[in-house]
Fold this protein.
Amino acid sequence: MTDGNERLDELEVLGRHVADAIVEYGEVRLISHNDADGLSAAGIMCNALYRRGILFHTTIVSQFNESTLELINKTKTPGCAVILCDMGSSQVELTSKVDNAIIIDHHKPTGELEAPHFNPHLAGIDGASLLSASGGAYMVARQMGDNTDLAGLALVGATGDKQVMESANRFILDEALENNVVSVKKGLLMGDAPIGELLEYSIDPYLDITGDRDKIKEFLDETGFEGRLSGMPGDELRRLVSIIVLKLAKQGSSQAAGSLVGDALTLNSEVIPNVYDFVDVLNACGKSEKAGIGIDVCMRNKGAVDEAVAITRENQRVIIDSIRKAEQQVKSAQVCCA
């Protein structure tokens, strides 16, 4: 058995230990972080708890601090478990004050915890790049029942944290592929939308026409691109990639151009199939204090998708406006200094 397989076996043991601890409770207070990884981790646990018939109350927070501890103590039922997702490993002093705590995290632990604790670092796996909190939640959830269909959410979290599909993440991806939970094909590592809309709201990569409808219309008229990205014929997609790469090179963003094409994931079991769209939705909902909408999407509530997308578009508008204002300030400063 290779060293890598031994570490994955250790992850399985950790996942089983934490899962066994969770199912001992009839009620859970779930606290998680407000980014894409934290929300997808919470989404995985909400699905797993619901399927086991365990009552749960979920709150998404921006950080784990004394105010979070006060919130937990004020709102939890006596004797219930408190699951901390995407937090807790590096805040041992705070975590030790939580009764019946169960931790699912990927940040490097800073001390010993008596509570049931899933963390890839405990198995010698780097949580910064090889397993996210949502990946940890998935490793626990798969020990709580038939939850392999939730692997797509784990990959959303890994994508949101810009992790690589190696080691533990590769194990999850392979399991997802084997069960047809996801599909993979070479393509643009961007969201899926009509090309004009995609260019209007594109932040990663950010282009010289992003957010400018007039410039986008001119670009589309000149190039003839139309339809959704996912429906583009291969030759058209390659032409679009070439043009975007040239634009990024002219902007001095060669690093962004190099990461533009790769293995694009389609989530076959989720209400938002494109993994980058899903990441954007969860980040926007979390940062806009509409985390409940993000959790609804993770729990496959189709009725929440339109509102989630609207929240995302508004969040993207705000970010793009900030970028454009910053660009104008830089240009003004350059003119003043010239």
Residues 187-337 form one domain.
